[in-house]
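Friendly challenge for the regulars: who can give me the structure tokens for this chain first? No prize, just bragging rights.
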Amino acid sequence: MSTDLHDVSGRDWLGDLRTNLTGEFEAQTTRLTQLTADTGDPAQEPTRAALIAATRQSLEQISAALGRIDAGTYGRCVHCGKQIPAERLQILPHARFCVPCQEKHGRAG
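First reply, four minutes later:
Bragging rights claimed.
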């Protein structure tokens, strides 16, 4: 994979990433539907609530990443504007910050 997301091979990679993120968004939407419809054991409610919150956060992150792809800003730090290393994006495709800005913000992605 190229480290420059804006060259021709990067566009192919972004197309594949868009497809993967869209599939993951659909899977997480299905999971959220199942979690919110579950009327199981009331003792499991705190766990279910945590799973619902985590799934919603995942959906927000995926949606934001897809929005950045569509806007042409994917792969750029939303704080400083520098390019996020491709290796970081491979591990954390919804990353919004470069590592230095991430450390300053102290929160995921």
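Residues 40 and 48 are 9 Å apart (CA to CA). The chain has a mean pLDDT of 86. Your move, everyone else.
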